[in-house]
User: Fold this.
Amino acid sequence: MAYQMDRPLRVAVVGAGPAGIYAADALVGSDLPVTVDVYDRLPAPYGLVRYGVAPDHPKIQSISEKLRLVLERPELRFFGNVRVGEDLALDDMRRLYDAVLFSTGIPGHRDLGVAGEELPGCQPAADFVSWYNGHPDALPARPLESERVAVIGAGNVALDVARMLVTHADDLASTDVPDAVLAALRTNKVTDVYVVGRRGPAYAKFTAPELRELPELVDVDLIVDPDDMVLDEPSQQLVDTNRKVRTNVNLFTEWSKRPPTGASRRLHLLFWRKLKDVAGSDDVSAIRFERAQPGSAHFGEIETIEVQSVFAAIGYEGQPLPGLPFDPASGTVPHTAGRVIDMPGLYVAGWVKRGPIGVIGNNKADAVETVRSLLADAESLPPAASPDPAAVTALLESRHVPYVTWNDWLRLDAHELSRGESQGRTRSKINDRTEMLGICRPV
Ligand SMILES: Cc1cc2nc3c(=O)[nH]c(=O)nc-3n(C[C@H](O)[C@H](O)[C@H](O)COP(=O)(O)OP(=O)(O)OC[C@H]3O[C@@H](n4cnc5c(N)ncnc54)[C@H](O)[C@@H]3O)c2cc1C
Assistant:
């Protein structure tokens, strides 16, 4: 049966990160007449492309230029600063749209699960990422007073955090970090950053392009303990059979042979260390590990490293969305090819669908799969009771929700770009929500 409604299919996409925008693109590019409203709880679009990707990765940040082209399509409307689940309930969404696609990402972080984690100097890496990227909900800028910092985890987020800590502020001065963040980075007293992996070097989740940047850091010595480079049999098998693992291990081996140059900052990559606890009375004073004997499954010898701050970069964790089913084991919404289980008309894409894995590009095929499911269901979807696009703005206005339109966002975008230009930078991000809204919606 062909699509038979006498009006375009009305779809809401909740979350203007890459998954949501790729889904919107696939929807309006389909053969069916579809109009899409894209929501975000923040005044700015682009999700983790704006608030996750490190500021010293402008090429990756520039993916937002491609995403922008999608949001400019006439069949789309952008509603920023609208929290779906609070400002608009799921029932509202069902009334306004034939289908609702959630692409809300994964907001939570994983705890370390050790004693001392509650000490003030121990924080989720996600908080630091949000801070340096100017997320409006991040804690305010503060001086970086620790000389020695541990980053627990062996993935790219740990590397981003470590790089942002050891990079001298002058080398970040051309990036888009908010002014207050740049000022705080200028007070950074760090000398040593320890990135700590529980397992051996063959199991590290770092990717080669990110690793290859490390030796390029100015006035930073990269230190790998040659004792950590002993490979047990399973590690050796991985090295022999997996090219990516081999590349990583070759890089670590090469770095383990380099003598330090006397740089003022050091980035240490440590392996085979299982975190035992975070020590300190009022604040962090050290981390303690059980050290594995490479080549043996046993952890034993306790090692202490004095640090004043700890960042936990061991992954992100999903949280339930109001009214939607949730699988606590995977931290995602249970679905079949993007269709939320037992909830006709509701769909998921991106990290909320498959968990916090993969790079930006992986969200495209994922979103396309979901949109294929949605379009295949189009003729049998329960039709919206209030499909008039004006019903959305009327509802938001009746609830006094200060929503941000696409043109409002463009005003903020232009402001950030021109402020950056006047400072010789790509952009200077505004991180205060009230200020953002004031620029978006001048009175
Ligand atoms: C720190 C970090 C660095 C990364 N760096 C890179 C990198 O360099 N290169 C790379 O390829 N990948 C990188 N990634 C991975 C990449 O960011 C993800 O693959 C991608 O962002 C996931 O897309 P998403 O749309 O599912 O989620 P998100 O990007 O998180 O977007 C979700 C959006 O939903 C919005 N939202 C949430 N709840 C609501 C609600 N209730 N109502 C309305 N809106 C809501 C959020 O505000 C957000 O804008 C990084 C990830 C992290 C965490």
